[in-house]
């Protein structure tokens, strides 16, 4: 008798499910687990008997009720190692010996013998999409099997063909959805009716074994050896051992005209009275063990398109943080954030890059400017080409470049002039100003977080008001020459509840007692541009993205209280949640600050919110043409008259650039 080894036929779905399990479930746990594998008759001539692994191999049970070809399911053990060294160290020969021993011991008692004690060892190099594996299917070798008789099955059955077919059909229905780890059943010799093992033991009757082979040629699959070992070891079969009758099904059992095609199937009678399990030097001799020990390598890169590879790789990089360092990281929550960046300059470009590093998938840019010759060296999403021929619009290019870096991102850019207090609107500009206002309102309302990254104070005013009106998280990031400031704005008054949120935190404008005005008037060139040390925007954007991700981890989000005592600051798994951060490059210092919301704030007070909601368009146009109106509405004018004495020390900072805010705070 000749035998043919098993060889794995692994679907790509298996590897991608393994990757997902490794990242999301197993992580660093490399315990031994089980895999569900199947064998079935392949109608095409092959050199091996195939063992199928696919996406369903990770399930515990067969959940899909299959009809058609007969499939035999087995549970095998598998181990997915953390390191290639641990994977290589596993002693497969030793495993095979132990498996043989366990299998033979079980033969004398087990009703359902496990003839398939296979094991798969895997090392998955997920960064490179390389999978190394060894599959070992321990099969014994038997000597002295005497083949007494062999016939084509249909010849043997003759007139009993119909009866056999009916019973076979019933057996398949019964056995189809069981995990058997063996591929034989016992039937009555005359009726072909299924005989449970216990019934056979109690009432010894003449039986035939039906063995479902997974190989359609004349050789048998190698599991047949273990089957023979079972027959000669289990005492129940002793009285028939010199004439064991076996029907070997070797056809893919599809029913055609209510008949199984059985042209390759055979009937054999074996005399096993002299048969023995082969041993050498006290070790069981394994069939084809060399073949199973061969390491196989799968390179999945060639099967995946580059875009999904990039997506998987980015996800993996982030998820790795969860394994050891931050198991509490809520990546789904972070990645679901839709972020609106007002300003696509040094800060906007770099912040966007940090956010995609965190896996954020929705980033929208708003910027009115075009890319100038000086921009590409500092603004990390642009190159020289973008600055030529008058320069391309920043917002649009920034969105385009993000997609080039990471195609899976949903990124858009809008070239939009933000209406600003003190930037007078002429009659002819009214419509376009209102259009911009409506677009900006829509953008704020459809995002979760707004970052104010522009280089003038007045351009931050309307987005601050809108964030407050729509209840969105809002951050201001501002740069001086060698200092930066990051503020997370206090929660919107629409959501604010003092009992939950404590004292409401200040916004970017809460420290001001004047309205933002046109800061570009009467400025020299160096005053008009933000002149900063080149490393500053990278530092500031890095701190702001990390503050944002920390805040997302706080259940109260932007309603998370703060304190002027750093030890009393709220904590998430990522650390403390300060209110202001002020960094100073000259002494490499970062300090934390805290400020309460100002009840007469020109941007975030109830009065401004009410005015905006009552008649947004006329409130806006009035503010743009006469910024002082903000002081009147917010109640500052009144406060000033009442408390002139108290606040005269605070300087009017109207017209100053971002650094003025720093001075006020310090
Ligand atoms: Zn405010």
Automatic annotation (TrEMBL):
InterPro entries: Atg7_N, ThiF/MoeB/HesA, ThiF_NAD_FAD-bd. Residues 321-554 form the THIF-type NAD/FAD binding fold domain. GO terms for cellular component: phagophore assembly site. GO terms for biological process: autophagosome assembly; autophagy of mitochondrion; cellular response to nitrogen starvation; piecemeal microautophagy of the nucleus; protein modification by small protein conjugation; protein transport. Signal peptide: none annotated. It is found in: Cytoplasm; Preautophagosomal structure. Keywords: Autophagy, Cytoplasm, Protein transport, Transport, Ubl conjugation pathway. Transmembrane segments: none annotated. Residues 1-304 form the Ubiquitin-like modifier-activating enzyme Atg7 N-terminal domain. One of its GO terms (molecular function) is Atg12 activating enzyme activity. The keyword Ion transport does not apply. Pfam families: ATG7_N, ThiF. Homodimer. This is Ubiquitin-like modifier-activating enzyme ATG7. The lineage of its organism: Eukaryota, Sar, Alveolata, Ciliophora, Intramacronucleata.
